[in-house]
Amino acid sequence: MVDLRQQVPEGRYGRTAGRSVGQDGSAEARTDRRLKITGGVLGVLMLALIGWIGASYVSDQDVSGELIKFKVVSDSAVEVHLEVRKEAGVAGVCTLRTQAENGSEVGRKDAEFPAGASRVDKVITVRTTARATSAELVGCQSG
Question: Mind listing the pLDDT tens digit for each residue in 112-127?
Answer without folding.
Answer: 998 888 899 999 999 9
